[in-house]
Amino acid sequence: MIRAEAADMPDGGAPKTPDRLRRLASRLLSQLTARSDRLMNEGLARADARKWHYAVLASLQEYGPGSQAALSRRTGIYRSDMVGVLNELAERDLVERAPDPDDRRRNIITISAQGRRHLRLLDKVLDDLHDELLAPLSPAERDQFVQLLTRLLDHHARTS
Question: What is the mean pLDDT of residues 99-127?
Answer without folding.
Answer: 94
